[in-house]
C-alpha cells in the first residue's frame, strides 16, 4: 500500500476459490498477477493502439499481436525501456533496428 493511499482503503475482489484455498498470500499473488497482465495490455494498447486495430481475420490479429509482444520483449532484452523513443530511433535509423536483431542472435 502506498503511504498516500492511507491504511483505510477497502477493496473488494471476487474469487472462485473455496474459503479454505483462499489464503491471503494466494489471493495477493492472484491479484498482482491479474494487474500485471492488465498493465501489459494497457501498454500495448497505448504504444500500438491495439484496441483501434480492426483486422477482420482472427489469424492476422493474432499474428500481429505476437509480433508486437515479440518486439517489446526484444527491445527490453537489449536494454531499451522507453518504447516511444525506440520507435523514433528505429524510424530515423532502420539499421539500428536490424542491429538489435543481430545482437540477440535472432538471425540464426
Radius of gyration: 19 Å
Task: Let me know the average pLDDT.
Answer: 80
User: How many helical elements?
Assistant: 4
Structural class: mainly alpha
Q: What would you say about this model in short?
A:
This protein is an all-alpha fold and 108 residues long.
Describe the structure.
- By secondary structure, the protein is mostly helical.
- The protein folds into two domains: 52 residues; 53 residues, no CATH class.
- The protein is 60% helix and 0% strand.
- The longest helix is centred in the middle third of the chain and has 25 residues.
- The protein starts with 23 loop residues before the first helix and ends in a 5-residue tail after the last helix.
- The relative contact order is 0.06.
SSE blueprint and pairings:
Layout: H1 24-48, H2 58-77, H3 83-92, H4 94-103
Helix pairs in contact: 3-4
List the main descriptive attributes of the protein structure presented here.
single chain; 108 residues; mainly alpha; elongated
Amino acid at each position: 500500500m502506498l503511504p498516500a493511499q492511507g491504511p483505510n482503503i477497502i477493496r473488494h475482489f471476487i474469487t472462485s476459490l473455496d474459503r479454505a484455498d483462499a489464503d491471503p498470500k494466494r489471493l495477493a499473488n492472484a491479484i498482482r498477477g491479474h494487474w500485471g497482465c492488465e498493465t501489459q495490455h494497457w501498454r500495448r494498447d497505448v504504444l500500438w493502439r491495439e484496441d483501434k486495430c480492426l483486422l477482420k481475420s482472427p489469424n492476422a490479429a493474432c499474428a500481429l499481436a505476437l509480433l508486437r509482444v515479440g518486439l517489446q520483449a526484444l527491445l527490453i532484452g537489449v536494454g531499451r525501456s522507453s518504447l516511444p523513443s525506440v520507435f523514433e530511433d528505429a524510424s530515423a535509423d532502420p539499421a539500428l533496428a536490424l542491429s538489435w536483431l543481430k545482437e540477440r542472435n535472432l538471425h540464426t
